[in-house]
Design a protein that fits this description.
Structural class: alpha/beta
Largest sheet: 6 strands, mixed
Number of helices: 19
Strand order of the largest sheet: 8-9-10-11-13-12
CATH class of the largest domain: Alpha Beta
Radius of gyration: 27 Å
CATH superfamily of the largest domain: P-loop containing nucleotide triphosphate hydrolases
Shape: elongated
Helix content: 40-55%
Length: about 525
């Protein structure tokens, strides 16, 4: 049986195309050699479980360590220690029987006579019985909450401090979507584990590791495995576009490749091109595959909305935003921090966030017919489209925008729903949004031509003039001499007759078509 691109569960050697995990884990191996206790945090579907299984198998085959991987998911959201630790210990018993078969597991009921020492007593027992330093990997640990989470962390700390005098693991790693400091959300829990900010087994500043994404070279290496087995090639441009869209996210890379080679281009003599990758992207977004659907379900959560909403409108973060909210969204993998700036993690997420938030409005635009705005030569009739947008905004759009859960960015989302309805099937819309810019950058590609659109909310008289420089910089960035500025007038006093206009402004050989709404 030939290997295939894996889109569900951990990768298995010889069954799936996969890269050696060692390259992504060099920093983790160093921390183990240094006897550190640390966290490994990364977003959803980034290969954490595959990495953990590889680590355990590698350590247990070698001569230096013994290792066990314990999934803590079964204890999720159980606040009382005894209720959380009983299923956790049962899961640990199964893990030990598979990974450390020579070890005798302690009686679970005996351990639970004192829940606040149960985890520590287990780890002491395991450490006593193995003949090499013990490495313990706790997976999905950030699902622990309340008293159970405090007890779990405290037991690890106590064992760490006392390990010079009593057997305890050489290394413990806590794995999940968040760092340890972000497990603690309630004030009473913060007080109970105040030591997290000081010298501790989980020194969150120096010893928090993450899994990096694949590089473009590694993306090409993964595709080359398919070529070696089947003869089907990926063009260099296809690999580059695959990396650009995914930014190295392992699940997205595998999902796109699987869609192309097993559905879209089954003939192995046909080379995979950039266009095939783009088609696969549309299919995966439209079908809302499992990873994407579960991730975007989070957009309904208030703590996610508080960050994404100002990003869409280009406004600064709210002054009362909690660090926990930001850490939570970063942990989900929706956003990343690059060069000190908060960004959507990749172009695929950037697009599906908008499509998800505007889907209901798009399907409701039944009276808008895309063919009306296409010229006989196949080009997009932008003046006609913008006049139709003004008419729609005045009649229905401004009211519909108030219905978005994302209220701050309602006008932007309404425009994007309108554009997506027009563009679907004949081109695509690219979006660039970031905190603090005060605007949203769009460009529409249709019929082989690009059209730049900047979106701005007007709340004072100088907004329009301030925006021209931003539009000109954007035109320079994409290499065009003509663009559109959609200016939403949010002031209360102007009439519709004052708000609705289209006029041209000329600067340094460039033309900005200003559309007032």
């Amino acid at each position: 049986m030939l290997p295939y691109f894996n889109t569900s569960g951990p990768c298995i050697p010889d069954k799936h195309y996969m890269l050696s995990p060692e390259h992504r884990l060099r920093h983790v191996l160093r921390l183990v050699d240094e006897e550190k206790y640390f966290t490994i945090h990364a977003g959803r579907q980034t290969g954490k479980t595959t990495m953990l299984q590889w680590l355990v198998e590698s350590f247990n085959r070698g001569d230096m360590y013994r290792a066990v991987w314990i999934d803590v998911e079964v204890a999720r959201e159980r606040e009382e220690p005894i209720k959380a630790f009983r299923p956790l210990l049962r899961r640990a018993k199964r893990a030990v029987s598979r990974q450390l078969p020579e070890v005798t597991f302690p009686d679970i009921d005996e351990l639970l006579r004192d829940p606040d020492n149960a985890i520590g007593d287990l780890l002491r027992s395991l450490s006593e019985q193995v003949d090499k330093p013990l490495v313990v990997l706790f997976d999905e640990t950030d699902g622990l909450v309340g008293k159970a989470m405090v007890s779990f962390l405290t037991q690890l700390r106590d064992g760490y401090i006392d390990r010079r005098y009593s057997p305890f693991p050489h290394t413990v790693a806590l794995v999940g979507q968040r760092q340890v400091r972000d497990y603690v959300l309630r004030d009473e829990d913060r007080r109970a584990v105040a030591w997290l900010g000081s010298t501790s087994p989980f020194n969150i500043t120096a010893e928090a590791a993450t899994l990096r994404m694949f590089t473009e070279e590694e993306t090409g290496e993964l595709m080359a495995q398919h070529t070696e087995k089947t003869g089907q090639r990926f063009s260099q441009e296809a690999v580059g576009h695959l990396f650009y869209l995914s930014q190295g996210h392992p699940w997205l890379i595998n999902a796109f490749a699987d869609q192309v080679v097993n559905r879209d281009v089954e003939d192995r003599s046909v080379e995979v091109t950039k266009e095939h990758i783009e088609t696969a992207k549309e299919t995966i977004i439209t079908e809302r595959r499992a990873h994407i659907d579960s991730l975007l379900a989070r957009l309904r959560e208030e703590r996610v909305r508080r960050i994404i909403d100002p990003m869409l409108s280009g406004n600064p973060m709210p002054a009362d935003l909690l660090d926990d909210d930001l850490s939570y969204v970063l942990g989900l993998g929706l956003l990343v921090i690059r060069e000190g700036a908060l960004e959507v993690a990749n172009p695929v997420y950037r697009e599906i966030i908008i499509r998800t938030l505007t889907y209901t409005q798009q399907v409701g635009l039944v009276s808008v017919k895309p063919a009306w705005y296409v010229k006989p030569d196949g080009a997009l009739d932008m003046p006609k489209l913008m006049k139709a947008w003004q008419k729609f905004w005045r009649k229905d759009g401004h009211l519909a925008a108030d219905g978005f859960h994302y209220r701050e960015s309602g006008p932007h989302l309404m425009l994007m729903a309108f554009l997506q309805r027009i563009i679907n099937g004949g081109g695509h819309v690219e979006r660039e949004y970031a905190l603090g810019r005060g605007a949203l950058d769009l460009w529409v590609e249709f019929g082989g031509a690009k059209h730049v659109i900047e979106v701005k909310l007007r709340r004072r008289t100088d907004t329009e003039e301030d925006t021209y420089e931003q539009v000109l910089r954007y035109l320079d960035h994409v290499g065009l001499t003509e663009g559109w500025l959609v200016l939403f007038d949010m002031r209360k006093t102007p009439t519709w007759e004052d708000k609705l206009f289209i006029r041209d402004e000329h600067f340094e050989g460039k033309t900005i078509h200003v559309v007032g709404v």
